[in-house]
C-alpha cells in the first residue's frame, strides 16, 4: 500500500508563468536546474524571480550536479530553496552541510542500484530514481523497467524518468511511489522534440489530473 496521495514535482521550470501554472494546478514542488550544461538551467536572476512568485506550500527545489560548496552557497544566498536535489557523485556529508533537506537522484540500471542507494544515502529525505544514461545526469525523458524497484523502501521513493500523462497513472498503480517527478513529459513541443525549459500548461494540468485519478481509483 502506497501513500494516500502521490506527491508531485514539476522539474526543469525556467519561467515564472510555468511555475504559477504548476502551483495552480496542484503541484507539490517545482524544480530549478542549477547545472550550466543543461538546456533547462536557470540563471540566478531567473531563479530569484521564480522564487518570489511561488506561493507558500509549494516546495522550491534546486537541482545540482557535482557542485562545489561555494556553488550551492551562492545560490542559497539569493534563492530561498526549500530542498536540494543532487544528481552527481556528491557524498552524504557534502549534501548535508547546507542546513536544507536534500534528496539524492540515482540512475537505475537494475535493482542493485536502488538497494545500495538506500544504504549509501540513508540520510536523504528521499531517493529519486531515474533512467540510466551514461552521458547525462537526468532530464533524459527516458523511462526504465519499474519492476526492478523493490517493495521495501527505507526512504520515500520518488519515481522519475520519461513520465507523462499517458503513463503516470500506470506508474503509480505499479510502483506506489511516494512521489512522481516530471520534466520533459510536460514540456512544449518543438520541431526537434520538446522545447527544453518551456512548459506546456495543458500538459502540466493533464499530468496532475492523471495523478489525482490514479490516487482516487486505488
Ligand atoms: O533536466 C535536466 O536537464 C537535468 C540535467 C542534469 C541533471 C538533472 C536534470 N533534470 C532532472 C529532472 O528533470 C528530473 O528530476 C528527472 O530527470 C525527470 O526528467 P524527465 O525524464 O525529462 O521527466
TrEMBL record:
<keyword id="KW-0822">Tryptophan biosynthesis</keyword>
<keyword id="KW-0028">Amino-acid biosynthesis</keyword>
<protein>
    <recommendedName>
        <fullName>N-(5'-phosphoribosyl)anthranilate isomerase</fullName>
        <ecNumber>5.3.1.24</ecNumber>
    </recommendedName>
</protein>
<dbReference type="InterPro" id="IPR013785">
    <property type="entry name" value="Aldolase_TIM"/>
</dbReference>
<dbReference type="GO" id="GO:0004640">
    <property type="term" value="F:phosphoribosylanthranilate isomerase activity"/>
</dbReference>
<dbReference type="InterPro" id="IPR044643">
    <property type="entry name" value="TrpF_fam"/>
</dbReference>
<keyword id="KW-0057">Aromatic amino acid biosynthesis</keyword>
<comment type="similarity">
    <text>Belongs to the TrpF family.</text>
</comment>
<dbReference type="InterPro" id="IPR001240">
    <property type="entry name" value="PRAI_dom"/>
</dbReference>
<keyword id="KW-0413">Isomerase</keyword>
<dbReference type="InterPro" id="IPR011060">
    <property type="entry name" value="RibuloseP-bd_barrel"/>
</dbReference>
<dbReference type="Pfam" id="PF00697">
    <property type="entry name" value="PRAI"/>
</dbReference>
<feature type="domain" description="N-(5'phosphoribosyl) anthranilate isomerase (PRAI)">
    <location>
        <begin position="9"/>
        <end position="208"/>
    </location>
</feature>
<comment type="pathway">
    <text>Amino-acid biosynthesis; L-tryptophan biosynthesis; L-tryptophan from chorismate: step 3/5.</text>
</comment>
Amino acid at each position: 500500500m502506497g501513500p494516500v496521495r502521490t506527491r508531485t514535482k514539476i522539474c526543469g521550470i525556467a519561467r515564472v508563468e510555468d511555475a504559477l501554472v504548476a502551483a495552480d494546478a496542484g503541484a507539490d514542488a517545482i524544480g530549478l536546474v542549477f547545472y550550466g550544461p543543461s538546456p533547462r538551467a536557470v540563471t540566478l536572476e531567473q531563479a530569484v524571480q521564480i522564487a518570489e512568485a511561488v506561493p507558500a506550500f509549494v516546495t522550491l527545489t534546486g537541482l545540482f550536479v557535482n557542485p562545489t560548496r561555494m556553488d550551492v552557497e551562492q545560490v542559497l544566498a539569493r534563492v530561498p530553496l526549500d530542498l536540494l536535489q543532487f544528481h552527481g557523485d556528491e557524498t552524504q556529508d557534502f549534501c548535508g552541510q547546507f542546513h536544507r533537506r536534500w534528496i539524492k537522484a540515482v540512475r537505475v540500471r537494475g535493482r542493485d542500484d536502488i538497494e545500495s542507494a538506500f544504504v549509501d544515502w540513508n540520510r536523504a529525505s528521499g531517493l529519486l530514481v531515474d533512467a540510466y544514461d551514461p552521458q547525462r545526469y537526468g532530464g533524459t525523458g527516458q523511462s526504465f523497467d519499474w519492476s526492478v524497484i523493490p517493495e521495501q523502501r527505507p526512504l520515500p521513493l520518488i519515481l522519475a524518468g520519461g513520465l507523462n500523462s499517458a503513463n503516470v497513472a500506470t506508474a503509480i498503480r505499479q510502483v506506489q511511489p511516494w512521489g512522481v517527478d516530471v520534466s520533459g513529459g510536460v514540456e512544449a513541443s518543438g520541431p526537434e522534440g520538446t522545447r527544453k525549459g518551456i512548459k506546456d500548461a495543458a500538459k502540466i494540468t493533464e499530468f496532475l489530473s492523471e495523478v489525482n485519478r490514479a490516487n482516487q481509483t486505488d
